């Protein structure tokens, strides 16, 4: 083959491999994202913090499937096909009778599970939390995310006392506070009950229909008034000022409940803003609704009462309150203001030569069994490369095992900050490492 031909062949091979890489890249789905190792610390911190909040507030763990029946969510959000059609991801392969969707939230399936498993016998009220992915193809307002997102949810099922409305708000606020997310804004509203909410909804729908020509394009063509109530466009904001407000339509019971919630918030020193147009579209909510926003106006958490949900899906009355914290939005926020991870420092284990490598499994197990986190790059042969890896991981202490040490049952402990080394017996390794870690 002459030189020109061989170069041409090389070029073709190169472009083929580029094309292949591009094809791999193209398999990613719009609205669905990967979490990659560079964000590992942030996610670990979020999951740890959520678990701690759940533990401190006494919530039991629950988990429901990512797939639920479409009929269930049509009951939850209202069966108006105009509203529900296209909002969720249908599950391909389900039979027409099954009609399955990827869940748009994990909060309400907790109630389905409560009814299915008679969880009221376990605890009343039942305080439960979940963590998982949910999916919305098209959100009806600006509060819910679109595509795939992760939620951390808290619920108290089986009690209508306003004290639990506060417990839910406090749990969400505690989560954000522990992650050091500052300057959040808690907005709260009442949405009424069966007796009083309907007439208000009719009024606001009529108002929205009448004002459509003065609203932004998205609010004017939206399927209902929900978007208009949370729109930031100036025209929509101005028109909202003269829209009817829910507070004028509340029945005495709802009025008293809302008053009690606000008094408890004040008692606890939690700052809030009243937002008379917050979360009014979705039928599932009643009485209290709230949302917590970041300084830049992103909705980080939302929730409220769903006292009628159990009856909507065929159960007896189980008054409940709950919320979801949008953890992927927390992760986005934490990326711009890195958090200090509270992880314990680890040691880096280096082995040179086959004999040392064979012994390394036993020593690594010894370290981990004794609660010392250990990382390694044993796939690399040279000392230089393994040391470089240790430096990159910024570990305070490295353990070195060469052929000689392996035969003599010794190990070298190296202080990575000073470079100082000492050789100890394998038996003394744990004790010495623990002592060194304490000094850090
Ligand atoms: Zn009412
Ligand atoms: Zn608008």
From TrEMBL:
Q: Name one GO biological process term.
A: histidyl-tRNA aminoacylation
For this UniProt record, the keywords arranged alphabetically read as follows:
Aminoacyl-tRNA synthetase, Ligase, Nucleotide-binding
Q: Which GO terms describe its molecular function?
A: histidine-tRNA ligase activity; nucleotide binding
InterPro entries the record matches: aa-tRNA-synth_II/BPL/LPL, Anticodon-bd, Anticodon-bd_dom_sf, HisRS-like_core, HisRS/HisZ
Chain residue ranges for the region called Disordered: 1-20
Class II Histidinyl-tRNA synthetase (HisRS)-like catalytic core domain spans which residues? Answer: 31-190
Under Enzyme Commission nomenclature, its number is 6.1.1.21
**Boundaries of every Anticodon-binding domain copy:** 346-436
Q: Which GO terms describe its cellular component?
A: cytoplasm
> Can you name this protein?
histidine--tRNA ligase
The species is Candidatus Jorgensenbacteria bacterium GW2011_GWA2_45_9
């Amino acid at each position: 083959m002459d030189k020109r031909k061989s170069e041409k062949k090389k070029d073709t091979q190169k472009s083929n491999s580029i094309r292949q890489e591009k094809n791999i890249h193209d398999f990613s789905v719009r609205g669905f994202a990967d979490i990659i190792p560079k964000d590992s610390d942030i996610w670990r911190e979020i999951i740890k913090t959520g678990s701690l909040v759940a533990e401190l507030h006494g919530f039991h763990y629950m988990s429901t499937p990512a797939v639920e029946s479409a009929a269930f969510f049509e009951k939850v959000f209202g069966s108006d096909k105009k509203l529900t059609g296209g909002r969720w991801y249908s599950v391909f392969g389900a039979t027409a009778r099954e009609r399955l969707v990827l869940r748009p939230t994990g909060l309400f399936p907790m109630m389905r599970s409560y009814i299915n498993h008679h969880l009221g016998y376990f605890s009343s009220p039942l305080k439960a939390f979940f963590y998982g992915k949910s999916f919305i193809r098209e959100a009806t307002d600006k509060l819910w995310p679109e595509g795939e997102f992760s939620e951390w949810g808290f619920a108290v099922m089986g009690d209508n006392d306003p004290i639990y409305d506060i417990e839910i708000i406090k749990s969400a606020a505690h989560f954000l506070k522990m992650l050091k997310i500052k300057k959040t804004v808690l907005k709260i509203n009442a949405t009424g009950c069966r007796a009083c909410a309907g007439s208000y909804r009719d009024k606001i729908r009529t108002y929205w229909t009448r004002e459509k020509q003065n609203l932004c394009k998205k609010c004017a063509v939206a399927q209902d008034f929900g978007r208009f109530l949370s729109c930031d466009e100036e025209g929509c904001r101005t028109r909202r000022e003269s829209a009817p407000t829910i507070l004028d339509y509340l029945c005495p019971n709802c009025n008293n409940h809302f008053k009690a919630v606000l008094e408890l918030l004040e008692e606890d020193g939690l700052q809030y803003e009243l937002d008379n147009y917050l979360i009014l579209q979705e039928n599932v909510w009643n009485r209290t609704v709230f949302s917590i926003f970041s300084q830049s106006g992103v909705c980080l958490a939302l929730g409220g009462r769903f006292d009628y949900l159990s009856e909507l899906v065929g159960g007896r009355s189980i008054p409940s309150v709950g919320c979801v914290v949008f953890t992927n939005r927390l992760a986005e926020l934490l990326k711009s203001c890195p958090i200090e991870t509270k992880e314990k420092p680890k040691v880096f284990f280096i082995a040179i030569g086959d004999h040392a490598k064979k012994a390394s499994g036993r020593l690594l197990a010894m370290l981990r069994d004794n609660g010392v986190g250990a990382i390694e790059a044993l796939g690399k042969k040279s000392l230089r490369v393994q040391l470089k890896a240790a430096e990159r991981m910024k570990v305070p202490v490295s353990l070195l095992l060469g052929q000689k040490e392996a035969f003599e049952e010794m190990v070298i402990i190296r202080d990575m900050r000073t470079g100082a080394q000492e050789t100890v017996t394998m038996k003394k390794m744990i004790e010495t490492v623990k002592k060194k870690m304490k000094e850090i």
